[in-house]
Every structure is written in C-alpha cells, then in structure tokens.
Amino acid sequence: MSNVNAKLPKQRAILFLVLLSAIALIAAVTTSGQQQQPPPAQPPWPSPKKEPVVVTPGAKPGDAPSDAIVLFDGKDLSGWKSLRDGSDAKWVVRDGYMEVAPRTGDIATKAEWGDCQLHIEWATPSEVKGEGQGRGNSGVFLMGHYEVQVLDSWQNPTYFHGQAASVYKQHAPLANASRKPGEWQYYDIIFTSPRFDEIGKVVRRARVTVFHNGVLVQNNVEIFGETWNDRAPQYVAHPNVGPLKLQDHGNPMRFRNIWVRKL
What is the distance between the alpha carbons of residues 115 and 148, in angstroms, rounded to a whole number? Predict the structure, then answer.
C-alpha cells in the first residue's frame, strides 16, 4: 500500500505537465492562424465617399488660396460699407492698404458667412501716441459680433484680456507675439459660428482659434457671447451668417490682404 501511495504525486505531476503542453500547443496554433488571416479589404473606420476638393495654395504664405473670397485686394472698398448709415465705406485706400479715417465709423463687408478661415494683415501707427487701450486700437469682429482685439501691444501694458489677439474681455492670448509699431502683422483665424434653436436660445457656442504672426495664441477657445466692453458676455440670437466688421477706435490703423474661406 505504501508503494502505491508514493507513486501518486509523481503521476499527477506528469499529467499536469502534459496538460500544460497541450494548452500551449493549442494557443500557438490559434495565434498562428490569426496571424495568417488576410487584412480586411476596407479599413474598419468610415471612409469618405469622394476625393477632397482640390484647392491651389497661394504662391507664398499669406496669399489667398484658389477657393478664397478676397475681401480687400488693396485697390478699393467696393466690397465694404459704413455701419453708420449703410453708405460706401469712408476709410482711405492707398499704397495697397486701407487706413481708418478716424471718426468716420466702423465698416463691414457686404458679403456674409458663418464658419470660416480668415486671413487679415494690419499695422499700428509707427508714431506712438497714447497708452493702453488708447494706442493703436481697432478690432476684427467675426460675424459682426465677436471681437478679436487689434492693439499696439509692443511694450504697452493693459488689462490681460484686452491685449492684441485677445477674445475681447473673455480670453487673454497665450502669448504676446506683437511686432514693433508700424510693422505689418497678421492674424490667421479659424472660426466656428454659434447655433441657435427656433426660439433663439444658443445650443452651441462659437469657438475660435487664432494665430498671431504665426504663433498660436487662441487654441479653439469657446466664446461666451457678445464681446461687449461694458457688460458681461451674453448671446443674442442672430442669423447664421454675418459680415466681417473692422472697428474705428479713433486711431489711423492700416489693413491689407484680407481674405476668407467658407468652411
């Protein structure tokens, strides 16, 4: 009886090793079979049903691509109007740029759109006058409602959400990328317009991304409403399209090479 009992543990160990070997062999065969399966004919993710539209880029950075709407080509203001009375824009055009004629009022494009890519170049006066918000001030108003601040922010302290490239009174820029007074600067802006329901309630807030002189300064930030200077932001229902507005803040600001792509 003692000899039989002594053999049992050894037999059980041998049986356990045989079972482990069988399991390993089955796993190897399964894995090998999976590796040999051909890849799927189509990717598992949704694919576009047609090729992307061909867009020819501009000849150099800042030039309008082939599908852009040129809002100002340096020649005239035929595509713009005065917001004071709807008449022709009164700003001055010379040497390929437009310049604010102080106290003539804001101007806006006759064309309107919603989601867009915008390029605009601007320069503050080379002769520095004033300080803070009184120095080289204007604004780029998307859809006529949402302001990306234009300001001479070169060594010019002011409140943090009123600097150049701020979403006015809402988001300070991530960096101060300003050039010296009188030098040309530019914004590249990606804008997603707000959406309102049938009773005028906002169901999707606007968002904006801004590059200032090639530097990312607003990274897809949410706009909280109208960018007023004297009250808290709030959405007021408006059409799904709107113009680009440029502000007359009393300074002789210059603008050139303005174009937009509808998205």
Answer: 15
Q: Concatenated DSSP letters for 188-235?
A: EEEEE--EE-TTS-EEE--EEEEEETTEEEEEEEEP-S---SSS----
> pTM of the prediction?
0.82
Domain residue ranges in the chain: 69-262
- Tell me the helices (H) and strands (E) count for the chain, helix number first: 1, 15
The CATH superfamily of 69-262 is Exo-inulinase; domain 1 (2.60.120.560)
Contact status, residue 69 vs residue 262, Cβ threshold 8 Å: yes
pLDDT tens digits for range 141-194: 999 999 999 999 999 999 999 999 999 999 999 999 999 999 999 999 999 999
Q: Which residues contact 120 (CB under 8 A, 6 or more apart)?
A: 140, 186, 187, 189, 255, 257, 258
What is the per-residue pLDDT across 101-124, written as a single tens digit (0 to 9) for each? 999 999 999 999 999 999 999 999
